[in-house]
Amino acid sequence: MKNIYLFIVSILITYPLTSQKKEIALEDVFERGVFRARGIGDLDFRNDGLHYTRLEGNKIVNYEIASGKKIGELMDIAIEAKELTDKVSAFRFSDNERFLVLDTDQEHLYRYSYVANTYVYDLIEKKLIKVFPGRKIMYPKVSPASDKIAFVFENNLYFQNLNNGKVTQITHDGRKNAVINGASDWVYEEEFTLLNSYDWSPAGDQIAFIRFDESHVKEYLLQYYRDSMYPVDFKFKYPKVSEENSKVTIWNYNLVKKKLRQLHTGLEDSGDHYLPRLQWTGRENELCITWMNRLQNLLRLILIDTRTDKHRLLLEEKNNYYIELSDHLTFSKDGKYFYWSSEKDGTNQLYRYSIDGRLVNQITTGDHELTEFYGLNDDQTIAFYQRAEDRGRERKIYRIGVDGKGNQCITEAAGVHLAKMSKGGYYFVLSSSTVDRPPVHSIVDQNGQLVRVIEDNAALKDRVAQYIYSPAQLGTIINRNGDQLNSLMIKPQNFDSAKKYPVLMFLYGGPGSQQVMNRWAGISQFWWHQMLAQKGYIIVVVDNRGTGGRGEQFKKLTYGQLGKFETEDQIDAARYLGTLSYIDSRRIGIFGWSYGGFMSSLCLLKGNYVFKSAIAVAPVTNWKWYDSVYTERYMGLLADHRQGYEDNSPVYFADRLKGNYLLVHGLADDNVHYQHTAEMSKELIRHKKQFDTYVYPNRNHGIYGDNATIHLFTKMTNFVFEKI
C-alpha cells in the first residue's frame, strides 16, 4: 500500500514537470553536444601501476590512482614548449618514461592513420627535441633504451638519435602507391587495423617491419572539389574482390651491424596470403609472425630467429568458415608460455600454450564468449578478461587463474562494463552503463572493489531530465526458425496503446557486430532516434543472425551469402511488429549506414510488401565492388560463391522497388566507394524507379565536416516525416 501511495505522489509531482520539458532539436544532437557523455579521455596508466597522467589544457598532470590526488605536473607546455601551446593533440611515454612523445598539427589520411609534427620532451633534461624537423611523420616510437626514435616518412622507415639528432634512413625504396615500409596499405589498416607495421626488438638493437609492395594493386580515384579550375585527383591502391593484393614480406634491420635483410616464414610460395601482425616474443632475437591464407580460414603463428633466419611453426589453426584476427596474443615474461584466444570449441575462449606450441590448458570455458583479454597480473598467475552474457547483451569483467581455476566476476551489476588495466593488473578504470544509466567511470582494484569514482556523468543526467526522453526497452523477437533475436524499442514518451504508430527500424547487422546491448545510448545516432520518438515514431532495432556475442554458429551462419539470413530476420521482425495493435503496419521504414545501408536497401527490395520506405547511407550495393580482405573473409572467393554474391547484392534487385528510397553517399568515400550508389542509381533509372539521392562532395564514409552531418540528418528527418 505504501508503494502505491508513493507511486501516486510521484505522478502528481512529475506530471507538471513533464509537460514543461524541452523537445530535442537536431542542433542539440549534432552541434551543441547536449547529450554527449564524458569519458576518461587520454588517461594513461604509469609503469608503476599506481599513477596515471592526463592532458589537461596545456599541462600533462600526474595523479595517484587510489586517492585521485594530484601529485604534480610532468610538463607545462605553455612554459616549457611555448611554440606548442594549444597545439598538442596527443601524448605518450617512452617505455622507461623518460620521454614524452607529443603530436601536433595532425592530418588524417584514412580511418586511423595520420601524419603529424612530432616532438620529444626529455623529462629529466627538461629539453624539447623536434623529430625530423620540418616534416610531418607517421608512427613515431621510442626505442626501449630511450636513445632513439623510429618513424615512417613518405613510405620509408627512419630512426633519429635523441642524443645528437642524427637521422638514419633504413629503407630507400618507399614510394607512394608502390612500396610501403613500416606502415600499412589501405586494406590492412581498414580491415586488420594494422597501423605501424614495425617494432623495436626488446634490446633496442633491431627493428623488424613489414614491407608492402602494392605496385600491382589497382588504383581507385577520388575527386575533391576545392574551387579550382579542375577537380583535385587523389589516387590510392584499393584491392577489390578477386583482385591482386599487396605482396608482403618481413624485413629486419640490425642497428649494430647496420644491416638490412629479408626474413622468411617458409610460406613465401604458398600463394596469396596475409601477414597482419608481427610481434617480438621477449626472448632474444625471436620474432613471431601471424600468417593467414587469402580465405582467412587458416592461420599460423611462425617464430623466426632474426640472427639465422631460421623459422618454426608455433601454432596452426583452421576453421570451416573464417578466423577473425584479434590482438590477444600475449607472451609470458619468463618466455615459457603464450596466451591465445580461439573459437575452435564454438565460442571464443582463452588458451595457454607452452612456447614449443603444446596446449597446456584451456583457461576459460562455457557458452559465454570471451570478448576482450586485458592481460595478466604482475606475477602472471591471473588473467583478466571480458565476456558476453545474456545472449550477448551484457559485458562483464572477470579474473581467473591461468590454470583455469578460480573464475570470479568483478563486475556483478547488470550492464556493459569496459575496462582499461594498469600495468600488473593492480587497478582498472571501469566504465559501466545500462540502457537507463549513463556511463560511470571509476577506479576499481583487481578484485573489483571500488576505489573511487572519476566521472559519474551526473551533469548529463541532469541535462537529459530537462528533455523529452523515452528509455530504451530491451526485448526479443522470434524469427521464422524460432531463433530469439535481441531487440530494442523506443516508444514515444506519452505512448498510448490504443493508438497506431509508425515505425522506423534501425540496423547495422554486419558479421560480429551488435547494436542491441544493455548500455547507455548504445545504438548509433541514438539521440536522433530519440528526437523521432518524441515526434510520434516508434524506433525498433533488431540484431539479426550473423551478429556477435552469441557464439560461432550464430555469427558464421551467414558465411558465403551475406544478407540472406539477415534480411529474412529483419523482414520477419517487421512482419511481427505489424501484428501489434499499436503499430501501423502500412508505415514501417528502415534505416542503415554502411553495412546497415546495404541491409536497408535489400530489405526494402526483397521485403517490398512490408517496408514502406528505406534510408541507405553509404551502402554496399554489390559485394564484388568492396575490398578483398573483408568481403572474402565473410563471403569466400567470388569464383566459389558467385550465387551468394549475386543473390544478395541490392543492385540486382532494383526492379523490385515499390516504396520510398533515399540513397546517400559521400563522393570522397575511400571505404565504400561512390561507385556503389552510382551503379545502384543506374539500375533504378533503367527500371524507371523513382528515388531520392543525396551526394556529399569531399565527404568520406562518415559524412562529417563543413556542416555535412546536420545537413544530412535534416534531410533524413524530413524524409522520415514525409515518407513513413
Low-confidence stretches: 1-18
Average predicted local confidence, pLDDT:
95
DSSP strand tally: 43
End-to-end gap: 44 Å
Largest sheet: 8 strands, mixed
Helix content: 10-25%
Which class do the helix and strand fractions yield? alpha+beta
Q: Calculate Rg over CA atoms.
A: 27 Å
Strand order of the largest sheet: 36-37-39-38-40-41-42-43
Proportion of residues in extended strands: 35-45%
Number of helices: 13
- Tell the overall outline: globular
Account of the protein in words:
Strand 14 (198-200) and strand 15 (206-213) form a beta hairpin. Helix 8 packs across helix 9. By secondary structure, the chain is of the alpha+beta class. The protein is built from 13 helices and 43 strands.
Structure characteristics:
single chain, about 725 residues, alpha+beta, eight-stranded mixed beta sheet, five-stranded antiparallel beta sheet, 13 helices, about 35% strand, globular, disordered N terminus
Helix and strand topology:
Elements: H1 2-19, H2 26-30, E1 44-45, E2 51-56, E3 59-64, E4 70-76, H3 77-80, E5 88-93, E6 99-108, E7 114-122, E8 127-131, E9 138-142, E10 148-153, E11 156-161, E12 167-169, E13 179-181, H4 186-192, E14 198-200, E15 206-213, E16 219-224, E17 232-237, E18 247-254, E19 259-263, E20 273-280, E21 286-293, E22 298-305, E23 311-318, E24 330-331, E25 337-342, E26 349-354, E27 359-362, E28 370-376, E29 382-389, E30 394-401, E31 408-409, E32 416-421, E33 427-434, E34 437-445, E35 450-455, H5 458-465, E36 473-478, E37 484-490, E38 501-507, H6 526-534, E39 538-542, H7 552-556, H8 564-579, E40 583-593, H9 595-606, E41 613-617, H10 628-635, H11 642-647, E42 660-666, H12 675-686, E43 692-696, H13 708-723
Parallel strand pairs: 38-39, 38-40, 40-41, 41-42, 42-43
Antiparallel strand pairs: 1-2, 2-3, 3-4, 5-6, 6-7, 7-8, 9-10, 10-11, 11-12, 13-15, 14-15, 15-18, 16-17, 18-19, 20-21, 21-22, 22-23, 24-25, 25-26, 26-27, 28-29, 29-30, 30-31, 32-33, 33-34, 34-35, 36-37, 37-39
Helix pairs in contact: 8-9
